[in-house]
Design a protein that fits this description.
single chain, about 375 residues, Alpha-Beta Plaits, DNA polymerase, domain 1, five-stranded antiparallel beta sheet, 15 helices
């Protein structure tokens, strides 16, 4: 009597293979070997269990020459896709190797922890800062777009008083320097579309509005849940031909991000190459993926710059106070503004514009003094 064949989770195996091929740079032979391991899993102990096989067996399953198998397995191991215990390199004795593919959850978690946003959060969660008259140690969490959010206390809130409260941590000869990307998300989207001006400026000039007025309607329009943003724009009174032309391009970009190959997806890739995926069970609209792309790209810029600023703290004598959405706050000497600007802009695409604002520590009732400076690479 034949034994009952073991059940193999083919759907999960396919998801793991697609994830590995989409997120790791695999050579053609590596792809074939990785797929062969899936086939051998199904014949042995199951998904992400040990596969025991000779290189000859793997080569047959992968339809590659057996001499390429060992090199491919070592490359897959270095990438972190498999655990590999080599067998004998002498093909005459047929000593089998032992290989295990890591699970999809493991790969996702490993990639998440290695991202700059999580490295930065881990560092900041161990660093107390001066906030007003208190020493506090906020807790930072990473949101979907890789922005860091502070809590207990939320030192990123209270925008009007944020700089003054953080400036309390300045020593003699230091100021709080806020380095803020101007029109960050509209600029990222405009660059993607090949426009020479950011979205705020395009609509403000076309509609005869101030930039501040455009800011109140821009995000609700481009991130709307509606399939098309033109109807939403009309509801906000945005009707000038140049505005409609720009928003039509944004609408096409939303559709491209949502359906890159004709089928809807739940992830997008930022300008710096970070893959951002929607949370499981979350309903996705076209506007979600556009926000993931724009906000995720800015978050990548800010997080990378913050990590470099922290790395240079002991050498340069400055200290990162907090990251906050499109900006970083650094306690430093006024003469270090240009050096800090160069660090932040180095991690951004050409064409991004930075505003630097200095805030002095309030002493004996003296008001804050601020200096505004804008630089562009």
């Amino acid at each position: 009597m034949q034994s009952k064949q073991k059940w193999y989770d083919l759907k999960s195996a396919k998801a793991l293979r697609i994830y590995a091929e989409d997120n790791f740079k695999l050579k053609p032979s590596d792809k074939k070997v990785y797929r062969a391991l899936q086939s051998l899993e199904s014949q042995q102990d199951g998904l992400c269990k040990d596969v025991v096989a000779t290189h000859r067996t793997i080569a047959r399953a992968a339809k590659v020459h057996r001499d390429t198998v060992n090199a491919s397995l070592h490359r897959l191991e270095r990438m972190g896709l498999i655990r590999y215990t080599p067998g004998s390199q002498n093909y005459a004795d047929h000593k089998a190797s032992r290989i295990m593919r890591f699970s999809l959850n493991y790969l996702r978690e490993k990639k998440r922890v290695e991202q700059p946003a999580h490295k930065l959060a881990e560092i900041l969660n161990r660093r107390p800062i001066v906030y007003g008259e208190k020493n506090v140690q906020p807790t930072y969490t990473v949101c979907t777009t890789n922005r860091l959010y502070a809590s207990k206390p939320n030192v990123q809130s209270n925008k009007s008083q944020r700089a003054a409260l953080l400036a309390k941590g300045c020593s003699e000869g230091q100021v709080l320097i806020e380095l803020d990307f101007k029109a960050a998300e509209p600029t990222i989207i405009a660059q993607k579309l090949g426009c020479d001006r950011d979205g705020y400026t395009i609509i403000a000039q076309a509609e005869g509005m101030s930039v501040e007025q455009v800011k109140t309607v821009f995000n609700p329009i481009i991130y709307t849940r509606s399939r098309s943003i033109l109807k939403t724009a009309k509801n906000f009174g945005i009707t000038a031909p140049e505005s409609i032309e720009f928003l039509s391009k944004v609408d096409q970009l939303r559709e491209q991000l949502r359906r890159p190959a004709g089928k809807p997806v739940r992830h997008t890739t930022t300008e710096t190459g970070t893959v951002i995926e929607a949370a499981a069970g979350k309903k996705i609209f076209n506007g979600n993926l556009l926000s993931y792309y724009a906000q995720g790209t800015i978050s990548d810029y800010i997080n990378a710059a913050a990590l470099e600023i922290i790395e240079l703290e002991r050498q340069r004598g400055w200290k990162l106070a907090i990251p906050c959405h499109d900006a970083v706050y650094v306690i430093a000497a006024p003469a270090q503004i240009e050096e800090l600007e160069a660090i932040v802009l180095k991690h951004a695409n050409p064409g991004m514009t930075l505003k630097a604002t200095c805030t002095e520590r309030i002493t004996q009732g003296r008001p804050n003094q601020t200096v505004h400076k804008t630089s562009s690479p």
